DNA sequence: GTGAAAGCGCTAACAG
DNA sequence: CTGTTAGCGCTTTCAC
């Protein structure tokens, strides 16, 4: 494991010059630079990032905190962030909060407890004032994904808008009896996502003069299983079986499709289903959905952060950036069949 | 951002004592230790892991390389590793190879290029001689999950055995016409997993004197979609429709269940289906499967590594540890119905 | 354009 | 049990 000294000796220059040459600093003659590069290559020299970090105060390592790892959505955001960061020469250290309980505190103390990261990306996590304070007081830029965070750059999708779009698609097809499978309270912490989507849904109905029917709402846990159970309730109602279901996530929407099938109902003839996400399984199920592009979200978060880390390139923008979304119409939605109510 | 010096002054001791007290070293009087702890708390002092790493040569950070992030299986292994590492005070830096192409080389050069990690966990990755060499020559312990790696501690499941168990379950129920949906060549790199599972399947058949019928085999890509397509082929055969399908993964098995349903076949009455993994969706689909416990695998890998990092506690074991697996019988398998062949 | 030297913040002998 | 003193391996003024 040769050090910078060894390279310096081999190249016949000082360690200072080696450092300059290797980090692409301007004040080095081409000739010297070549010699240093050759020497470094010959010895297989690699800088010690610790030593370098200690000297510069920057680690080229950023922390990413996620609430779950095994859900497709979060894994995708993470994937987007990881590849972008690595392409820029940054490492990513991962903190997963899924364990619950003390995990969270331990993670945030970890962050503060070791200045190993230059910055933090928080995915779908509503940081507390204290957590944010801690990070910012150590001059660690923070970027949030999923909702607004006071005083921090964030990226988020307009959940109200997205839900409205999904519902409008159903309305435009002619549905008037539209059920909604929303998120339950456990997910409210996460920027009130269930409430926002429900607001969008209700708003769309009301703007068409359709009264909101509370019995057409069910809360679930964003899983296929949860969506399945909720849909069974909804579709089993003998009196007011809806002709369409808008689920707050694709996984729940897929659960709804499976529930319909199990009840002998045909999608979309008997019931239309629309979700949100564009989950990897959605195409397979022919699910109409509002796509949000999690990998892109991860990438954008990483880029936003890198921007902040390199003020010379800084492109100062608004504090909260709106994320793109798009209605993907597939085969799970159609006009309500005339044969039924 | 107070340094160790500030704490030393406040506590009225030397920096060496602060260091000792804070890292729980034995030679410190209780009284002094308390004073130091108090001072550190008062100042909100946190060690600089860089400085510490530089001085000790150890980073308390370990690198984890995964081939994919968005597949439930890998995410689960990662989750297991992350939580146990963090519980032991280690950070995890993540390297995802899903991008393909140059990613892999860049990652391994990264590892060698910065001594930021103390060790590496490679998940379902058959490292090349060069990659291994590089790591080991820098004295970085490596633990592999998923298959044997020369000269390195590894954890792996006995794929032949697992496949045999799944197939035997079907045989014991009385099936004789058992199809197999295996993995395609893209997954061979990964410790020949498809081949091994196929060997187990064929071995089980042969030991019962049932000839292997090549037309009852289909290769797919481990996804629901792939399993669906393969199963359609298998079940659509007018002459030799199998009474059971053994899929090399739960996702493919779920695809098979959905295919059967779409063809109007009933599971398990018309066709039994068994998979491998115990995927998070398997219970929902009532899928009989051979569970392998990915989170546990991650945890065990982390523990094995920590063992190697702390030789004082070292429990030297075999180079390759067998991972547990277990048949979970649910409702997708039953005796072949007497009404059919 | 290049070298000398002073740290970055901590830990680990070595004394005492 | 505690303090002194070297570094760990690099970067960065400041001179030349």
What do these coordinates show?
2 copies of one chain form a homodimer. The first copy, chain A, is of the alpha/beta class and 341 residues long. Chain A folds into 3 domains: 44 residues, 434 Repressor (Amino-terminal Domain) (Orthogonal Bundle), CATH 1.10.260.40; 116 residues, Rossmann fold (3-Layer(aba) Sandwich), CATH 3.40.50.2300; 133 residues, Rossmann fold (3-Layer(aba) Sandwich), CATH 3.40.50. In chain A, 43% of the residues lie in helices and 17% in strands. Chain A contains 12 helices and 12 strands. Chain A has a 6-stranded parallel β-sheet, sandwiched between helices. In chain A, strands 7-6-8-9-10-12 form a 6-stranded mixed β-sheet, with helices on both faces. In chain A, helix 1 packs across helix 2 and helix 8 runs parallel beside helix 9. Chain A is elongated, with a radius of gyration of 26 Å. The mean pLDDT of chain A is 93. Chains A and B meet through helix 4, helix 5, strand 2, helix 6 and helix 10 of A and helix 4, helix 5, strand 2, helix 6 and helix 10 of B. Chain A binds a DNA duplex (16 and 16 nucleotides) through helix 2 and helix 4.
